[in-house]
Amino acid sequence: MTIDESAPRTDPVPAVAAGLDLAARARQDGVRFILAMFVDLVGKPCAKLVPIEAVDELLADGVGFAGYAVGAIGQVPSDPDLIAIPDPASYTPLPWVKEGLALVHCDPHVEGVPWHFAPRVILKAQLAAATSRRLELFAGAEIEYFLVTRGPDGALGLADPRDVAPRPCYDARGLTRMYDHLTEVSTAMNALGWANYANDHEDANGQFEQNFAYADALTTADRVITARYLISVLAERRGMTATYMPKPFADRTGSGLHLHLSLWHDRTPLFPAGDAAAPFGLSDVARRFLAGILEHAPALQAVLAPTVNSYKRTGATSTRSGATWSPSRATYGGNDRTHYVRIPDRNRIELRGGDGSANPYLAMTAALAAGLDGIERALDPGGPGPGPSSGAVAGEPARSELPPTLLHAVEALGADPVVAAGLDAAGPGVADYFAALKRDEFFEWHAGVGPWEHDSYLTAF
């Protein structure tokens, strides 16, 4: 991923920035229906389809949802409705999906108060905590995904059956065979002002990545959710399934959600050091932020890698291509993709622990909470550590091993008050609720009996 960090990109869709309100902009664009959308804690996109005739009511009153039916959002059947209040700045026309369709991201409320279990509300609260320190978080996100099909028997296969090379990364032929899909997504991103700058075949067969410019953290999180929706719908139209599952194939590289993070003050970047001789060119603020990320890495993984399948990715020892590209220890280094945190240049750090199942709102919330703790406590990241495939180096500081399973990550979250407080930024109980969800997910998977056990034990005794 290459990002120009010379100036922040914060502009929403241009016509909204020009002063038109959402209703006027939607009518001008010929929009007939608006998806009023939000996600639950596990990232499920939830929406109602609102006709343009009701857009004024949508803006004034929001739209109601039965919260328990939504999914993982902290409600029981007897609770009052969630009322999704749209954020006009997030207005996104989607004619590539359906002519006359647009999307707007919403903040769920309950009885007039922002609902503190809603991921977008949580991120906004954590960003407000940074703003109180006169800091602003900017972020870029790398979206990786597979294009697959499922046979009548449920077997998973590649959407491109000719994509079989042992090292397919950047393969021009595989990229060209998916030209129609990739260019339609790219065209949409650029029309929306996201500045798509690269689309590539990733390291695994059937795996792709599409990049867009960085922005303030809330805008980037919204765009990750919109992009996942857009990519999925456009893939389905061509008979494919776009999956963000971290590790759909045991012998192939998994899909990450790498986050490029930087702090700003009054539109001035804080990460570059004034002293060119500073380690990696990073300022003291940047190094302390980095140290906070490393300090809290085990708990962060419960949010950045929040599924059972996530740990098939970070725990992988080999793939067909010869590399896993996923960190197993909380190390950092320069332009070296084997680390938990890569420092590609003096303007940003790349947090590589996240995967395709991560909720971008929660991921940025947790990372910001950890980084701010590093700043407040003046933590020192020490020297760069060896990569995950290297042995320990004498004199280098010990680095935390990342959790080997989701259960270990949830236990680390429960023992880390800083990351938990980040999840609770908008109100109490979210961290405990999220941990319980993930603990239940682990034990539901653990209770199943599958082919590995049949192969290992059926006639072993």
Quickly list its features.
461 residues; alpha+beta; Ubiquitin-like (UB roll); Creatine Kinase, Chain A, domain 2; seven-stranded mixed β-sheet; 16 helices; globular
Outline:
By secondary structure, this protein is an alpha+beta fold.
What does this structure look like?
The protein has helices at residues 14-17, 22-28, 55-61, 67-70, 119-131, 172-177, 179-191, 217-237, 284-295, 297-304, 310-314, 360-376, 406-414, 417-423, 430-447, 451-457; strands at 33-39, 45-51, 63-65, 82-86, 92-93, 101-110, 113-114, 136-150, 156-158, 198-201, 207-211, 215-216, 241-243, 257-265, 268-269, 332-333, 341-345, 348-351. A hairpin with a 5-residue loop joins strand 8 and strand 9 (156-158). It is globular. It has 461 residues and is of the alpha+beta class. The strands form two sheets. Strands 8, 9, 10, 11, 12, 13, 14, 15, 16, 17 and 18 form an eleven-stranded mixed beta sheet that branches. Strands 1, 2, 3, 4, 5, 6 and 7 form a seven-stranded mixed beta sheet that branches. It has two domains: 26-115, Glutamine synthetase, N-terminal domain (Ubiquitin-like (UB roll)); 125-449, Creatine Kinase, Chain A, domain 2.
Amino-to-carboxy terminus distance: 51 Å
Strand percentage: 15-25%
Task: Give the class-level CATH name of the largest domain.
Answer: Alpha Beta
CATH topology of the largest domain: Creatine Kinase, Chain A, domain 2
What class would the helix/strand composition place it in? alpha+beta
Mean pLDDT: 91
Task: Find the CATH superfamily of the largest domain.
Answer: Glutamine synthetase/guanido kinase, catalytic domain
According to DSSP, the number of beta strands is 18
The low-pLDDT segments are 1-19, 387-398
